[in-house]
Specification:
Chain A: It comes from Dissophora globulifera. Chain A: This is RING-type domain-containing protein. Chain A: Keywords: Metal-binding, Zinc, Zinc-finger. The complex is a heterodimer of chains A (379) and B (146). With 379 residues, chain A is an alpha+beta fold. Chain A has 4 domains: 7-94, no CATH class; 98-163 and 185-206, Ubiquitin Conjugating Enzyme; 210-307, Ubiquitin Conjugating Enzyme (Roll), CATH 3.10.110.20; 312-375, 2-Layer Sandwich (Herpes Virus-1), CATH 3.30.40. Chain A is built from 10 helices and 16 strands. Chain A has a 4-stranded antiparallel β-sheet. A 4-stranded antiparallel β-sheet of chain A has the order 8-9-10-11, covered by helices on one side. Chain A has a 3-stranded antiparallel β-sheet with strand order 1-3-2. Chain B has helices at 3-15, 100-112, 123-129, and strands spanning 21-25, 31-37, 48-54, 65-69. Chain B has a single domain, classed as Ubiquitin Conjugating Enzyme (Roll). The mean pLDDT of chain B is 87. Chain B is built from 3 helices and 4 strands. Chain B is 23% helix and 16% strand. The chains are: A alpha+beta (379), B alpha+beta (146).
């Protein structure tokens, strides 16, 4: 068992008679005097004090026997290991009924061991790997409570996108965390339910996977199976954000364009003019390429290097800051320097010749001195 | 907030340092020591000066505190003998576009364009009254020639 506990020692000397709670700045938490003996004092966190509460006399005896502080510390670590390992065995194996073990094993046998990728020593947590029709891996975690089988297990639901359409009873049923454990006990019904979900969202994940493979996704940084939003780079400081509907993944998504106005205005009008060309037999990424008239497609990891896409903020020199990407651009066509909203706002606020109108600041771009505007970042 | 920016600047200084500039000591993101060599063909050829940069928590929104340290402070009409430098971009013309490298270049060019080695005329009174931090001085930038 790996566990880190901080300890501070004070070697006994003539004036070491301070007492009570002391706050030592180098510690993460308030430090308490845990033990006092002939060699000196041991300070530690509340956690340490709690663990050692029953062993104080025993440790004082050990300190008397130890020749110096280092050898006592070795004894202290031994004692801690003893206490902690006996605690874990107590919880794990003695407080559970025989049927807990036999029932879980029966269920796992019925399920088939090849699906199980991880299992706790006390069988309380089972990780099951499922594959959908497109060979994507999905994880399902089932936890068996101590009172199992009287208390039903809990299932961490699969990561699925949230559906906003309230009309679809199917999606509600699929999204719900209340799994049909009551009617049909057993892991197999959980798996069947999960497989239904995988089948239902297959189309959605196919669409998302296509976007992830063929574009530079700026946001989210690490998309999960539940993320419906993607923001993809278009090059020249422009990007498009799309929100795919999990129920109708191939229909035209809500989109938003980001970038300097003179670059995205023509793109926006193309998007509207060509909207009739949307073809649901094609993937949304392919459709957007047609609508936006991108002959070479989206910039993707295949044809564009990361440095051309992740243009860093001109103030903090980083791309991602506090989860934000630099999306405030200087509107001067020769400059187009990107900034994070928060960086630009703080800078404009700090110089005297910036004007403010409500929450909008008008100041000079630090690079080209042309007027640049920004609004206060959301708190 | 801006540790990332300073680490990038440091990397950049190591990769392509401006001529005559050398990082002496940059173990944290608070104080950096750099050395600046006088450019060949100028009055300061063969001389080497020590620069100290102090970064506040608001860098690069606020300028760093920059001064010459050590026994060799360049003798220049805009540099006081206590190491304080009269250079607009270090004070009210600071902008986040400036970097440690660009400051070093500005200083280099300030030294190179000098025609006679002398201290500022008010050096004696200034060093008696100035505070340790040059950013507390109310600077007047009047001379663009040197």
């Amino acid at each position: 068992m790996d566990r880190e506990l901080e300890v501070c020692i004070e070697i006994a000397s003539s004036d070491s008679n301070r007492s009570g709670i002391e706050s030592k700045p180098e510690f993460k938490t308030v430090v308490q005097r845990v033990l006092t003996g002939n060699l000196g004092c041991v300070f530690g966190t509340d956690e340490l004090k709690e663990i050692l509460v029953g062993s104080k006399l025993q440790l004082q005896q050990k300190m008397l026997e130890a020749s110096d502080m280092p050898s006592f510390l070795i004894e202290l670590v031994d004692t801690l290991e003893g206490i902690l390992s006996s605690k874990s065995t107590n919880i794990d194996f003695q407080e559970r009924s025989v049927s807990y073990w036999s029932q879980i094993m029966e269920q796992l046998d019925a399920l088939g061991w090849e699906m199980i990728t991880d299992l706790n020593a006390d069988l309380s947590k089972v990780q099951i790997e499922l594959s959908d029709a497109s060979q994507r891996k999905h994880m399902l975690v089932v936890r068996f409570p101590q009172g199992f089988p009287a208390v039903p297990p809990t299932v961490e639901p699969l990561e699925t996108p949230a559906c906003n359409s309230e009309h679809s009873s199917l999606s509600q049923q699929l999204n719900s965390n209340a799994l049909p454990f009551g009617q049909q006990p057993g892991l197999q019904s959980v798996i069947r339910h999960a497989e239904k979900q995988l089948e239902f969202f297959k189309e959605f994940w196919d669409v998302m996977q296509d976007i992830d493979e063929h574009t530079w996704v700026i946001d989210p940084e690490k998309p999960t199976r539940a993320d419906r939003m993607r923001r993809c780079a278009l090059g020249n400081h422009c990007s498009i954000q799309m929100n795919i509907d999990p129920l109708f993944p191939r229909s035209m998504p809500d989109t938003r364009l980001f970038g300097p106005a003179n670059s995205i205005d023509p793109m926006r009008s193309k998007l509207y003019q060509n909207a009739a060309l949307w073809d649901e037999s094609k993937l949304p990424r392919e459709n957007l390429e047609i609508l936006l008239e991108l002959p070479n497609g989206f910039p993707s990891p295949v044809n564009v290097s990361k440095d051309d896409i992740n243009i860093e903020c001109g103030i903090c020199y980083s791309f991602r800051f506090d989860g934000q990407v630099p999306d405030q651009l200087c509107s001067h066509s020769k400059c187009q320097q990107p900034f994070h909203r928060v960086c630009l706002y703080e800078w404009l606020r700090s110089i005297p010749n910036t004007r403010q109108s409500f929450n909008t600041l008008f100041g000079a771009c630090p690079y080209c001195s042309e007027t640049i505007t920004t609004t206060a970042p959301k708190q | 907030m801006f540790a990332r920016r300073l680490s990038k600047e440091l990397k950049d200084l190591a990769m392509n340092p401006p001529a005559g500039v050398e990082v002496v000591d940059a173990n944290d993101f608070k104080v950096w020591k750099l050395s600046l060599a006088g450019a060949p063909g100028t009055l300061y050829e063969g001389e080497k000066f020590q620069l100290e940069f102090n970064f506040g928590p608001n860098y690069p929104l606020e300028s760093p505190q920059v001064l010459f340290v050590g026994k060799d402070v360049p003798i220049h009409p805009h540099i006081y003998s206590n190491g304080h430098i009269c250079l607009d971009v270090l004070y009210n013309h600071w902008s986040p576009v400036q970097t440690v490298a660009s400051i070093c270049l500005s200083l280099q060019s300030m030294l190179s364009s000098c025609t006679s080695k002398e201290r500022p005329p008010d050096n004696a009174t200034y060093i008696k009254t100035a505070r340790a931090n040059p950013k507390h001085t109310a600077w007047a930038f009047h001379d663009d020639t040197v």
